[in-house]
Amino acid sequence: MKTDLSPRMKVALYGLMCVLLIPFVFPTWWMLTSSVKPISDIFAFPPDLWPRRFDFSTYARVFELQPFARQYWNSAYIAALVTGGTMIISSMAGYAFARIKFPFSNAIFMVVLLGLLIPSEVTIVPLFQMFLKWGMINTHWPLILVPIFGAPSVFATFVMRQFFIALPVELEEAARVDGLGRFKIFWLIALPLAKPALGAVAIFTFLHSWNLYLEPIVFLSSTQMFTLPQALTQFTDAYGGAMWNIQLAAATMTAIPVLLVFIVAQKQFVEGLAHTGLKG
Amino acid sequence: MAPVTLKSITKSYGTTPVLHGIDIDIADGEFVVLVGPSGCGKSTLLRMIAGLETVTGGDISIGARVVNDLEPKDRDIAMVFQNYALYPHMTVATNMGFSLEHRGAGKAEIAERVNWAADILGLRPLLDRYPRQLSGGQRQRVAMGRAIVRNPQVFLFDEPLSNLDAKLRVVMRGEIKGLHQRLGVTTVYVTHDQVEAMTMADKIVVMNGGRVEQVGAPLDLYDRPANLFVAGFIGSPAMNAIAGRITADGFMAGDVTLPLPPGVSRADNAVYGIRPEHLSLAAAGVPAIVKLVEPMGSETQVTLTLGEHTVIGVFRERLKSQPGETVHLQPDLTAIHLFDATTGGRLN
Amino acid sequence: MTIAADTPRRKRPFWTIERRDAAAGYAFIAPQLIGIVTFVLFPLGLVFYYSLHEWNVLANTFNYVGAANYQMLLADKALPQVLLSSAVFSAGLVVLNMSLALLLAVLLDQKLKGITLFRTLFFSPVVVSLVAWTIVWSFLLQNNGGINGLLQLIGVEGPNWLRTPTTAMISVIVVQVFKNVGLNMILFLAALQGVPRELYEAARVDGAGRFKQFRRITLPLISPTILLTSIITIVGSLQVFAQIAVLTQGGPGMTTTVLVYYLYQQAFQFHFFGYGSTLSILLFVIVALLTFVQWQMRKRIVFYEN
Description:
The structure holds three protein chains of three kinds. Helices cover about 70% and strands about 0% of the residues of chain A. By secondary structure, chain A is mostly helical. Chain B has two domains: about 5-235, 3-Layer(aba) Sandwich (Rossmann fold); about 240-340, CATH 2.40.50.140. Chain B has eight helices and 19 strands. In chain B, the strands form four sheets. A six-stranded mixed β-sheet of chain B has the order 6-7-8-3-9-10, with helices on both faces. Chain C is mainly α.
């Protein structure tokens, strides 16, 4: 409904959006500022929107209390593997379902789509037993294998399929006449043109892996192996009370890098998501 | 360069037949146009020659080889697609050299061939651009360049001009024809536009409903259409077709009697065909009422009512008649086509 | 005259073009298919198998008990509360999420300067680590935390958000809505921008006001997006775990114990793997049923499909 708005209307809309922004922006601000407050100022009244005293030692304490660098690395490399693996597997499957004629392709696609109805929360008990049997408990294998092959990758396959269906088929026919086989057509023609969809898949998959919480607490037991979400909840004192400022320092370090990447690349980010097959 | 032979080609999608036994011989170096209304199977046939559709029955040969089970890349053909199908993520030069690159040609050879093709088509200044930076006509040239770079045995064109505006279409028509005269490569060209077929082809294949209606040189088809379908399809405005009876006194269509050439055998169920330019105005002749006058400058197109029939005449002279006036028509007796109304076949 | 008679049959190669392409197709889907079978379908079968057994890891027992676990499910006094909590959570989340997403998308679709900045900010929580986001809110919602501090400044005595049954549920819902509403907002925005402008112009010429345009043109045209996002949001709401674990641990009492959290407790805290598997089956049935119902509803609520 892009009609020109009256100045009064504009002011009203800006005002409304600013009020609505508070719960979206304030928590991040509060996390940042509280992470550098000494513990005594954390619950000060009235609340300080800007710290009255700074205490940067909280950031050092994060690394003393936990093998935080190691945990950071765990989360990062797992997310990278899951993202890369999902992009490969689901772009190949999505391409085949969209473009290649083979017997039972529709039936198989339906079976694969079933995966969307079976999130790993449903299968967590047998998954635990399977990985126990394979000696993979307290390793990162479950956190890598389950998302690459489970429901998140099915979603990715669906997004890729929708994209490839919309790609002009003549491009691939031209490539066939030009002498390419299926794999080269996929690799040199279809995939380079699928960058927006691949971008969306990468974002969804990365965030999924980065946010995993149930799986790590089920599959991992030693702090060396922990991922970030799990580690963040471990900053407690001897009595089980939360060490808020240190926990918030760790949370800040977890959140800010991804947030910065997002702000730098927000255009591609948002447009990539908007162009997934979700429009129906 | 190679001849192409299609022998009793059939094609079905599931149980739906779309081609019912096509036989066409294309000589080495010939420019053949497949023409027909949409859905007649002409594109399917072209795609079968390319190897993009499988052959249900019959044999396709290129040169001495039967190619039914060969991949497109092994058939030594090149194809120009309706919407050009240029790879959007590659430059013009890469687009043109792509097929050579994947046939193991060296860098120097690719560059040489691409430059050769670019010179022929005037693409030199555009080699580093991307398809999105080109106009419609330029894209069309690049698509042709991609086809000629490889020096294939056969060129296949699938309605290549249908996305261009009318003016550019005429220009590109000339360029494709010129390219064929220069390279002499066997060419199969699909279009639904009979003007393209007439102007470009050495030989036209008229198709309808999955069958070949007639094969022949453009003017042969125009002068002696084998049946009603070809008669109506080739030529614009279309041939006038009037149903009636052939008698000793002439052709009886309702209250109207039309003159016939001598020596025509009688038939009760016939169609009288006459092209608009073969009608002329005369002091005495078949009376007709003017319905609509369309001056084109070089000629005048007039829609007339002849009894209960509507006919179109095209006259060299500029007509002053008003709608409602009566004029007299004289058909050229040497240019009358008679058809059997039931089978559509030619009678004379 | 048959075709076989007039064209002598050549010997066709086994690897015809179709067969080669089909083989490529199977090769392309093989990793996905094998993965689905190994890590989704096979475990689903196992869940069902386990659910027919009494299995306590601590006591090291594994006995076939038939439908006993399902009878236990029906008799479980905690389960009605768990299902109620799940229902309240999912319903609250979906309604709030979808309406806020639509409101934000409509706001962001206006011709205003700096709208991209607003879009970025509304979307930003999506990329913040889920547990980090939840921890900050947990901190804000403490009895002596930031929210009650700010409320006290304007003279309002805030409740102990996470320790009072009603407000605990509200908190859990709201925290999750703010975290992820940006996703649906972006999808709605894309759908809104896909509505042809001429339709609004035609409606204006026909004398339809802003509200009427929205109801009669915008909503019908974006209804496929609304349906798809609502399915994804509902299925997602049934999987919520981290937020509950960090904010309330299912409390106070069991007021925020949703099904997944209960399942986790039964299987991994109390080590009742058999009963945990039965709860998994229940979760699966609910997810499947809701998806099916929504998919059926698309004929009635979706006015237009491309």
